[in-house]
Amino acid sequence: xxxxxxxxxxxxxxxxxxxxxxxxxxxxxxxxxxxxxxxxxxxxxxxxxxxxxxxxxxxxxxxxxxxxxxxxxxxxxxxxxxxxxxxxxxxxxxxxxxxxxxxxxxxxxxxxxxxxxxxxxxxxxxxxxxxxxxxxxxxxxxxxxxxxxxxxxxxxxxxxxxxxxxxxxxxxxxxxxxxxxxxxxx
Amino acid sequence: xxxxxxxxxxxxxxxxxxxxxxxxxxxxxxxxxxxxxxxxxxxxxxxxxxxxxxxxxxxxxxxxxxxxxxxxxxxxxxxxxxxxxxxxxxxxxxxxxxxxxxxxxxxxxxxxxxxxxxxxxxxxxxxxxxxxxxxxxxxxxxxxxxxxxxxxxxxxxxxxxxxxxxxxxxxxxxxxxxxxxxxxxxxxxxxxxxxxxxxxxxxxxxxxxxxxxx
Lengths: 186, 214
Fold this sequence. Notes:
Number of strands of chain A: 0
Radius of gyration of chain A: 28 Å
Strand content of chain B: under 5%
Oligomer: heterodimer
Helix content of chain B: over 70%
Number of strands of chain B: 0
Order of helices and strands of chain A: HHHHHHHH
Distance between the termini of chain B: 21 Å
Distance between the termini of chain A: 33 Å
Largest sheet of chain A: none
Shape of chain B: elongated
Strand content of chain A: under 5%
Structural class of chain B: mainly alpha
Helix content of chain A: over 70%
Structural class of chain A: mainly alpha
């Protein structure tokens, strides 16, 4: 369901709930709970234990504060404001409590290994292709394919010093291009 | 408890809710607080008989209009701050403009209306305790009532909501105090009004940050 379709459905259910229709209210709370779980889950990915607690706290707050809802207003922004308030409250409490004793294991960095290097190389490939051939080929042969200078020279028909100069200048040009890309990103 | 169980539990308690709860609670608090401060003012001093005479002074009505605007805007802003997701929007101007006008009037009096020493003198010997303490005392019941009402609502910005409740309380405080205020010099009145509102606002902000969290 798209975000713009959510509002009319939730609004209708909530209004009936405010009039005392328990079944509609039940449906409303269950739907809101799953949206909250996704919203909070994305933002609390480090504290998975807290996600469900916060979902419940938000649901409870919405129940206790349901008289603050004005029927002509969108219920999604009401729910969103309560969820944000509770989330910020929790993060603030956490930062006060937990930042004082950050003591994660130094080996934690090795607990998981992702082979994301493949992804990154593809970008370099794009940049490499923009280099002139006399710079690009030595870099590909020596740095990526792992040949020695002599092998690369034989392979490409260039002199060994031309290969070395090509690598040197090519890498410098590449660094400049990488910097340019990241600056554009900002 | 599982979330599904909590949802079922809450749905069981789906008692009907009035859609006008916010307005009703804030208005009731304002009335109760306003009555309390009027009684307080009436109890500590007799209401001045020259109120009618002062009503012929144009400054009285300018002040009255500014105070009314500030009070109305304060109520509107507080009403919106008390409800999650409601935007205050243009209503802020209703607070900023009359507030700025009251302050400009006070600064204008301070700078030009009378020589500096004379104003200090006027502030000092006129029963300044009566004015400062009187305004503060008259605004406290309103502030307390508004904060209690806000506690039953859901302000997502507690300190800001407290500050606006403070402005509203200050406005009612100076209005209630005006019935009794023996001071006639507009310069002194303007200075007391402006500072009374700010003191009450800061007090509301501090209390709000502490007591309005939910």
